[in-house]
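Final report, Chapter 2: Outcomes

The project's central promise was a pipeline that accepts a single protein chain and returns its three-dimensional structure in a standardized token representation, suitable for archiving and comparison. That pipeline is now operational. To close this chapter, we reproduce one record exactly as it appears in the project archive, with the input sequence first and the structure output second.
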Amino acid sequence: MEDKLFKKGYKKILAIDEVGRGSLAGPFFIGGILLTYNKYQELKQIPIKDSKKLSSSKRKEIFEKIKKLKIKYKIIKFNNKKVDKLGIGNCFLKAVFELNNLFKPNLILIDGREIKKIKDKIKHTKFIIKGDSLLISLGAISIISKVLRDEYMINLNSKINLYNFKHNKGYGTSDHFRSILKYGISSYHRKTFLKNYLNNI
């Protein structure tokens, strides 16, 4: 798809994807990668897939290959307190507007369903459902975002090892819920996400 878009005359394409939306703890990462035609041709040589379909080691391997291409990218992070304060949707909106202002692309590709508040303000935007498995650009930024957030959660586990963040990355696994029940919530948990659960225990 990107080949067709470059042929249409778009010179700078920004691909945006997110990681950590449904996590109960830790930050929400929104990543953007900016591609010119030449950089896209280099990126095509890497076997990129949706990050969710790759093992952790394979994601890291591909991430290192992407870094060597020196393609511009940016990760915007919202910690759990910001997520609680703003709401996950508003965090995403703020990130998209910030990435647009930073990179000034001719076109933005966003993984997921159309968001009217974005489309109304940024006309040069296309939303692609399951885009991270369909487009190389979205697959690349999904891998970058996933690797960096996973590293963050693994490092967080070394500070607080009660919740097994190293393995669950903050998501609502059964062992994570058992730990919350045993130890309560930490300063890294999203209270708004846990509100209903906490009211029932």
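Archive annotation: Strands lie at 13-19, 28-35, 73-78, 107-111, 125-128.
This record, like all others produced under the grant, will remain available to the consortium after the project formally closes.
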